[in-house]
């Protein structure tokens, strides 16, 4: 059957087909990615994208919004159920992304110049929690070697959070690469932030929300838990929830939650009203109703027993992947993981994060290079590699397949070892010529065929 797009714009149609084939025939191990159900995609591609609906339920600046109101009410109700919300908490589903959700919280709760205490970005925090980079490699190395568990910023403010507010960041413990709550408390008492944030992109362990809330309480700060990565694990009952402990919880909806692209903010009722006003008129115009429709459908799927199994299997798969990688003699940051990804410390391997991610991409395994604790290397060429299991688990893969993946990753490192002195470009030329890399890509494709994405 010919689709309308195929008829009217064959070029874009072909690109979509090519991208779908790429996703089907390779293993996406980027932990922030997932594959949505056809129902979520149908909702996202629906007529809701035509409608303007600035404002909140029952109080919009546009006519014709009754059905959008119904949709948003349903999405909010489903979010309340998915995250076991207390009656005194409210929900916003209008933020366009995780970064916008976080900015809306700052706009609602802080004044420009206020101090935010968040996790050090190279240890696994998030850019939207504030970041100023130190471009001078010597100064960077000196800072890392100082062993200090607090980072007050480099000379280059790289994002709006660091331009508007004063980010101070806590690092992980040098011995364990995990949170050192005593140090976080000392830093909080010294710098007196108005807001403490946990969460981010590359911290593989459980965070003790009660301990952080207790620290925030001591200094009269708000506590915001950003659970963008863990949202699906929490909704599936496989991971501890900050709801009812933190003052605000933010998340994206397209990672483990598998609900289309967007964000959800949960907060105590008085705060959510301020946050609603920070979203509009503070930051955004009309909400993306089609994405809210996707979120709504995804949350409906997350309420089903199959999603609980999915969330539990993600954790089992990651644990199996961690064990298998260690059996292949890879070193893992924190020696393992409690959630949906692992971070491989490649600092003692012949090939580091960026080139290794490219080698694996040619072998059909899509990952991303990452910074890691106590690594002075720059973010564009760091020592670690982040590998997640949400998409593999969506495919129906289990522990056995994780062992196979770990074996391919070791094989790829062995194949690449002789190229360790080459520049990135020359190394890639060798990878492209390599029959051994092609062989792994073929085996990956065969495995993908056995576990198609529906
Ligand atoms: N870009 C996301 C990630 O990969 O973790 C976070 O925003």
UniProtKB/TrEMBL annotation:
Keyword Secreted applies: no
Record key words, sorted: Amino-acid biosynthesis, Cytoplasm, One-carbon metabolism, Pyridoxal phosphate, Transferase
Residues with N6-(pyridoxal phosphate)lysine modification: 255
Gene3D superfamilies xref list: Aspartate Aminotransferase, domain 1, Type I PLP-dependent aspartate aminotransferase-like (Major domain)
Family annotation (CDD domains): SHMT
Enzyme class: transferase
An example Gene Ontology CC term for this record: cytoplasm
SUPFAM superfamilies listed in its UniProt record: PLP-dependent transferases
Reactions catalysed: (6R)-5,10-methylene-5,6,7,8-tetrahydrofolate + glycine + H2O = (6S)-5,6,7,8-tetrahydrofolate + L-serine
Quaternary organization: Homodimer.
Reported function: Catalyzes the reversible interconversion of serine and glycine with tetrahydrofolate (THF) serving as the one-carbon carrier. This reaction serves as the major source of one-carbon groups required for the biosynthesis of purines, thymidylate, methionine, and other important biomolecules. Also exhibits THF-independent aldolase activity toward beta-hydroxyamino acids, producing glycine and aldehydes, via a retro-aldol mechanism.
UniProt-recorded name of the protein: Serine hydroxymethyltransferase
Species per Swiss-Prot/TrEMBL record: Candidatus Andersenbacteria bacterium RIFCSPHIGHO2_12_FULL_45_11b
């Amino acid at each position: 059957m010919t689709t309308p797009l195929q008829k009217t714009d064959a070029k874009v149609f072909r690109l979509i087909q090519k991208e779908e084939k790429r996703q089907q025939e390779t293993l996406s191990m980027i932990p922030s990615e997932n594959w949505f159900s056809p129902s979520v995609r149908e909702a996202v591609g629906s007529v809701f994208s035509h409608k303007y609906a600035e404002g909140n339920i029952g109080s919009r600046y546009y006519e014709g919004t009754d059905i959008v109101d119904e949709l948003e009410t349903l999405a909010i109700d489903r979010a309340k159920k998915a995250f076991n919300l207390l009656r005194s908490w409210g929900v916003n589903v209008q933020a366009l992304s995780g970064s916008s959700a976080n900015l809306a919280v700052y706009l609602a709760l802080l004044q420009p110049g206020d101090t935010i205490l968040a996790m050090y970005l190279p240890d696994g925090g998030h850019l939207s929690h504030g970041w100023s980079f130190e471009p001078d490699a010597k100064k960077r190395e000196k800072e890392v070697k100082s062993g200090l568990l607090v980072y007050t910023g480099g000379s280059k403010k790289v994002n709006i959070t660091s331009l508007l507010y004063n980010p101070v960041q806590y690092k992980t413990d040098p011995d364990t690469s995990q949170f050192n709550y005593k140090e976080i408390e000392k830093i909080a008492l010294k710098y007196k932030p108005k807001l403490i944030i946990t969460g981010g992109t590359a911290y593989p362990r459980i965070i003790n929300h009660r301990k952080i809330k207790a620290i925030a309480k001591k200094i009269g700060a708000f506590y915001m838990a950003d659970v963008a990565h863990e949202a699906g694990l929490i909704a599936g009952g496989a991971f501890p929830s900050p709801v009812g402990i933190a003052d605000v919880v933010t998340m994206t909806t397209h990672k483990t939650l598998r609900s289309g692209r967007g964000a959800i903010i949960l907060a105590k009722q008085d705060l959510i009203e301020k946050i609603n006003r920070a979203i509009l008129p503070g930051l955004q115009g009309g909400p993306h109703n089609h994405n809210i429709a996707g979120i709504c459908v995804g949350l409906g799927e997350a309420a089903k027993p199959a999603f609980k199994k999915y969330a539990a299997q993600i954790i089992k798969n990651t644990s199996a992947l961690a064990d298998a990688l260690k059996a292949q003699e890879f070193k893992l940051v924190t020696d393992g993981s409690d959630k949906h990804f692992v971070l491989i410390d490649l600092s003692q391997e012949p090939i580091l994060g960026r080139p290794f991610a490219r080698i694996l991409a040619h072998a059909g395994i899509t990952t991303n290079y990452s910074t890691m604790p106590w690594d002075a290397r720059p973010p564009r060429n760091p020592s670690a590699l982040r590998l997640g299991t949400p998409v593999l688990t969506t495919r129906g893969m289990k522990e056995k397949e994780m062992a196979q993946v770990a074996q391919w990753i070791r094989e790829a490192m062995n194949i690449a070892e002789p190229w360790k002195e080459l520049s990135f470009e020359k190394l890639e030329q060798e990878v492209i010529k390599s029959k051994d890399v092609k062989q792994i890509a073929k085996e990956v494709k065969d495995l993908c065929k056995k576990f198609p994405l529906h």
